[in-house]
Amino acid sequence: MSTPANLSIKMRSWLFAPGDSEKKMAKAADSAADIVLFDLEDAVTTDNKVWARQLVHDCLASRTEGRDRLWVRVNPLDGPYTLLDLAAIMPARPGGIMLPKVDGRHDVERLDHYLSALEVANGIDEGSTPLIVLVTETAQAMFHTGDYKGAPRVVALTWGAEDLADSIGASNNRNDDGSYGFTYELARSMCLLGAAAAGVTAIETIQGDFRDLEGLKARAEKVRRDGYRGMLAIHPAQVDVINAAFTPTEEEISNALEVVDIFAKNPGVGAIGYKGGMLDRPHLSRAEYLLRQVGRL
């Protein structure tokens, strides 16, 4: 099946909520997060998974408005729970699915088959359930981050540092100053490049210290400059900071409009002098992309 073509929701902030907490799922769903991720994987113990599936189903079913922003992180395909997760939640029509710990594109294609069967069985348009894929959580996955162009259903890629550290046997993924080590910065870069190659949205991983909102702001603004278009969150307090960081400012919009206008007035010109510097076609492309983000092009 092809990538869903009707996905129009914003993808700046992706807020996790544990699937075994009715209260936390409700709070997340009522937040300003662009997308809410009800979590059936890491946030739920093995003993609670059956109960959590029912809670997630019921939470989805109870919200007829805005369900397209209510997604579910299922368990990874290398374990026994994925089909059980999907069978429980698909009748409630989740807005999308997050697939963790992929080893490569073949995992997405396998999940696509499962989803297609469950969509048909539940009267859902086949191929309409989108995916975000965690593409760096295993060592093998790191070698396949560029393989997702045209992968069925995929609308976004994101990365993770904790499971990658486990996968390679690292005792820590941080430098002495708190920054990520080389391997994990490489994972961030490979996720970004893979998303660009696939033509989908790149989403930054979580910041574990949800109290450090200034640090979150600086990091979110930095990765947005790098090319990321959204970020995962673990606490509602992070949502407003992330939304603001990934929303173009009025100054940025004004500058982009000016760049587009200059090229429109000079058709066929490849480079134009501008404010003591030079604009060329990549500047125009970036300006047009920013304006498309805010519906101004």
UniProtKB/TrEMBL annotation:
The keyword Metal-binding applies. Transmembrane segments: none annotated. GO terms for molecular function: citryl-CoA lyase activity. Its EC number is 4.1.3.34. Pfam families: HpcH_HpaI. Its cofactor is Mg(2+). Keywords: Lyase, Magnesium, Metal-binding. Gene3D superfamilies: Phosphoenolpyruvate-binding domains (3.20.20.60). InterPro entries: Aldolase/citrate-lyase_domain, Citrate_lyase_beta/mcl1/mcl2, Pyrv/PenolPyrv_kinase-like_dom, Pyrv_kinase-like_dom_sf. Residues 12-236 form the HpcH/HpaI aldolase/citrate lyase domain. Belongs to the HpcH/HpaI aldolase family. This is Citrate lyase subunit beta/citryl-CoA lyase. It comes from Sphingobium xenophagum. The lineage of its organism: Bacteria, Pseudomonadati, Pseudomonadota, Alphaproteobacteria, Sphingomonadales.
